[in-house]
Amino acid sequence: MSLFGSSNPVFEMLEKDHAKVKDLFEQFEEAKDARSRERIIQETLLELEVHARLEETLIYPAIRKKLDEEDIMDEALEEHHVAHVLMNELKRMRPSDDRYHAKFKVLGENIKHHVKEEEGTMFPKAEKADLDWERLEQKAREQKEALMDRQINSTKRNRTGAKRDRTKKPGRRTARRPLRRAA
Hints:
The protein is mainly alpha-helical. Helix content is 74%, strand content 0%.
């Protein structure tokens, strides 16, 4: 058994992520100033985006192939869906918007529930599955590093003013040619 409750390298990695995010939600509650709270929110969203993508694209599909527990896997994905909805809404909001902090707190409650079910139900059942856990962990670490780099670079671009105008459709020119008058 590891410090985080699992001898499985994949679940140990995920449990470390869970602990980090739980700590961020606690830091948010303790933060006194708006700048600290916003930094915590942005860091939490980054961590959750990477963690969810890793689970959804690599870890859950590997477990689903070996575990005859469709309900558990489907419920986990639906919990991810709810988290994505809240995260996307937070990204479109400003810290000064009504309910911004309330929405972040609800996200935290959703994540805590998801982690409890994942660590309490899914992981113990999946740990018995015949999977190459070391290989899956290696792939997960490589993908996590790539995702983290991509998210961080995207965040840096957004901070430097390269943020996409969400009111315009992608690929559409903003300048229109004047209409020709009929002679």
